[in-house]
Amino acid sequence: MKDKRTTILAAAVLTLATAVFPLSSCSDFLGSPRPQGVLDDEQVSNPEYVENLVISAYAIFISAEDINSSFSLWNYDVRSDDAYKGGNGTEDGDVFHALEVSTGIMTTAWNISDIWQRLYNALSRVNTALAVLENMDEDDYPLKNQRIGEMRFLRGHGHFLLKQLFKRIVFVTDPYLGTEEYNNLSNTTYTNDEGWQLIADDFQYAFDNLPATQADKGRPTKAAAASYLAKTYLYKAYRQDNPDSHAVTSIDKEDLKKVVTYTEKSIMTASGVALEPDFNNNFRPEPEYENGPESIWAMQYSVNDGTTNGNCNWSIGLIVPNIPGVTDGGCDFYKPSQNLVNAFKTDADGHPYLDDFNNEDYEMATDYADPRLFLTVGMPGLPFEFNTAYKMTESSTWSRSNGLYGYYVSLKQNVDPDSGYLVKGSGWWGTPMNHIVLRYSDVLLMRAEALIRLNDGRIDEAMGLINEVRNRARQSTSMISDYEAEYGVHIGVQPYSGSYSQEEALKRLKFERRLELAMESDRFFDLVRWGEAAAVLNKYYREEANDCTIYSSASFTADKNEYLPIPFAQISASNGHYTQNIGNW
After folding, report:
1. 504-535 b/e (C-beta count within 10 Å ≥ 16 → b)
2. Calpha distance 242→582 (Å, rounded)
3. Between 34 and 448, where is the model more confident?
4. In a designed cystine with 565, which of 107, 115, 187, 506 is the match (CB 3.0 to 4.6 A)?
5. What is the largest CA-CA distance in the chain?
6. Which stretches within 167-275 are classed as H helix?
7. For position 184, what pLDDT does the model report?
8. pLDDT tens digits for 223-274?
9. What is the spatial distance between Cα 228 and Cα 262, in angstroms, rounded to a whole number?
10. Distance between CA atoms of 355 and 347, rounded to whole angstroms?
């Protein structure tokens, strides 16, 4: 079993992890920076104490999430065309069913309020550390600016997740505010563009002050800050500044240029970042694969670290299938959609079908497919997690809903049941496998997208970046090398050749993002930032309704369903300072 005592997040749980309690407003838990009357100034200025505060801030990004509010946001990606909610039926996690069909979403739904509360809890811990760090003497504490960079990176991360989900959020960027001042914060102080800039400012400080490498794997590096800067500016570039609409009104070229700046290969190589030779290595729990060259920044998990069940990843507990006698109690959520599986089909040239991929369902016996299909989706007729002892079938073992949500299973979050890396907790299953927040293939595709959108003569370069990702996919067959002979599958993927117009290149870029990042919770947010969510998802609902009855009344409402409503509890506790998102919630 893996033992990561040296990683910062594992140490955090051992040292200072505390319980997170549901609260009704961000002002309830964002207060004075330290307990008054408990610690004197000498204690607060002690570098060991400050280090513990920093560790505590890291810790909460694991201890604050749970199976229903994963900070990977998989629970909220069920709104995309990549995945069905799964589980035992529509009433099993009914609030998430409302999200997947975009109807019946309530401002009082517990899952919406829960993720808001948990992320602001995390931000409060970060600001507590920052309030003390900023008052340290650099002569006494040489790591001051680096640690501030780490904390501002975490603050940017928390705000980024909140902004993806809610758009209109409260920015808690002043660690010195008192309780009354927090009570007067508004979620409309900044425009959408200004909000993204605040997040970018935190990542910019991190970029300017973080080292290229870190001894503790959980700490962000300069490459991590650059990657998040690029991601923030890519979201910022797709302007949605009309307060009465979520439509993309323009695409800002200056923001796109910053994406190009912060995805320069020299920044990545200085931190040792590169593509894994095999795509599947990114989703393996063994120590020799975790924190590999493609993992730019990841949440660190472990077992055998002195805690009861280890510092395990319990946030994926609902995704584990229910294998009798093996994973009894597995809940079988977040199941790959048929639409996603169909997207992996390839033609005689090894290219996806793009516009026509969903005309007919993928047939294993006849269709060619990108090898990433078999590394992303567990399918009937194939071994689960490449273990021939668990061959998947169209049965209740692989679908708690008896086929309502199909029989596919996500492979990226699961592990081989016989590997020793599946841990039974108090009712849930967990693994020590890291959650990669930023990986290099995403950076390559972000750079390609910016170059294509800029359309300044570098589209061939962008296609070369897409081909880097496709060429890596082509050689990612170590775990499935016998699939053609043993199971009759047909594997085919090739890079693109020739020249493409901006429109043609953009279509291929968007499709590549879907294939490469499938079931990693990016798809829905990509559709929203592109301004395509309503068109793509309503088409998806119409097509799915023919085979999957849960979509018969599904309907995505533009200028509403792109973002979650501000939770009712938060508006009620805000003293009138919070404004609801548009859409007649």
Report:
1. bbbbbbbbbbbbbbbbbbbbbbbbbbbbebbe
2. 11
3. 448
4. 107
5. 73
6. 179-183, 192-209, 222-237, 253-262, 265-270
7. 87
8. 999 999 999 999 999 999 899 999 999 999 999 999 999 999 999 999 999 9
9. 9
10. 12
519: left (phi over 0), alpha (psi -120 to 50) or beta: left
Q: Identify which of 368, 362, 365 has the alpha carbon closest to the alpha carbon of residue 348.
A: 368
Q: How far apart are CA 384 and CA 579, in angstroms?
A: 47
Q: What gap in Å lies between CA 385 and CA 102, rounded to an integer?
A: 32
Whether the Cβ atoms of residue 275 and residue 466 lie closer than 8 Å to each other: no
Of 209, 149, 156, 226, the closest CA to residue 443 belongs to 226
Query: pLDDT digit string (tens) for 511-537?
Result: 999 999 999 999 999 999 999 999 999
The single-letter code of the amino acid at 229 is L
Residue 27 has pLDDT above 60, yes or no: no
* Strand pairing report for 368-369 and 490-491: parallel
How wide is the angle at C-alpha 158 spanned by C-alphas 535 and 567, nearest 5°? Answer: 65
Smallest Cα–Cα separation from 514: which of 298, 404, 370, 365? Answer: 370
Phi, psi of 572, rounded to the nearest 5 degrees: -65, -35
Q: How far apart are CA 180 and CA 189, in angstroms?
A: 17
Q: How far is CA 576 from CA 116, 145, 191, 581, in A?
A: 18, 37, 18, 14
Contact 432, 415 (CB under 8 A): no
Tokens 């029989």 correspond to: 407
Where does 324-434 have alpha helices with state H? 338-343, 372-376
Read off φ and ψ for residue 310, nearest 5 degrees: 75, 170
Q: pTM (2 decimals)?
A: 0.93
Residue ranges of alpha helices (H) inside 352-439 are 372-376
Residue whose token pair is 């507990």: 317
With tokens 């010195």, the residue in question is 176
Give the dihedral sign, CA 303/309/314/318.
Answer: positive
Q: At what angle do helices 523-530 and 502-516 cross, to 10 degrees?
A: 160
CB contact set of 206 (below 8 Å; sequence gap of 6+)? 149, 150, 152, 153, 156, 220, 224, 225, 228
Tokens of 365: 């016996």
Mapping DSSP to helix (H, G, I), strand (E, B) and coil, where does residue 238 land?
strand
- Residue 554 has a CB neighbour count (10 Å cut-off) of 18
DSSP 55: H
pLDDT at 310: 63
Q: Copy the structure tokens of residue 500.
A: 């493409």
- Give the C-alpha separation, 436 to 443, whole Å: 13
Q: Which amino acid is it at 545?
A: A
Q: Is 69 helix (H, G, I), strand (E, B) or coil?
A: strand
Helix (H, G, I), strand (E, B) or coil at 377: strand
